[in-house]
Amino acid sequence: xxxxxxxxxxxxxxxxxxxxxxxxxxxxxxxxxxxxxxxxxxxxxxxxxxxxxxxxxxxxxxxxxxxxxxxxxxxxxxxxxxxxxxxxxxxxxxxxxxxxxxxxxxxxxxxxxxxxxxxxxxxxxxxxxxxxxxxxxxxxxxxxxxxxxxxxxxxxxxxxxxxxxxxxxxxxxxxxxxxxxxxxxxxxxxxxxxxxxxxxxxxxxxxxxxxxxxxxxxxxxxxxx
Length: 225
Known about the structure:
This protein is of the alpha/beta class. Helix content is 26%, strand content 26%. An eleven-stranded mixed sheet has the order 3-2-1-4-5-6-7-8-11-9-10, with helices on both faces. β9 (174-181) and β10 (184-186) form a beta hairpin. One of its GO terms (molecular function) is potassium ion transmembrane transporter activity. This is Trk system potassium uptake protein TrkA. Keywords: Ion transport, NAD, Potassium, Potassium transport, Transport.
């Protein structure tokens, strides 16, 4: 897979290193000469250019990329890069970094963004995930399809503890994608029984999140009382 990353700062270089280790081709693009540090990611391709310029993206052969990651520290730049990648070059997958949570609403399909990653929101979510049991935590927003990756740790009081996955009447527009149980990562099937302490990851429509939380959490019993 060929991946172009706009922004060769610490975030862009870190992403590049991970992708290279996984066997992908990576091109790092940055307009600041000081950011071009070939020795830090020697296996990547490097391009000194403005990723907001069509001529630069032509030089980068963006049409050959499977994924473009807009990872600069400027939300305006990330939006422009995302829009150009999607509309001018037809890149199948565009991932954009959100620096200011106030701008998160802009990072959607209209701007060519398939997945928006808000670093402040993600850090906050990870803190919540670490201390919350029975509360739904939003980890990631997918712009295409209007869906979120959400997590809930099944509390001891949940009425669904011991229930098989296939017997649960899940809300519409939700999908249980992973069960993390201790050190194991399980791909759920209909016969798997939910256990207290399971970390459940769902892809769900925002409108279904409250319904999903009520189904799984302590509040389900509280509502019934």
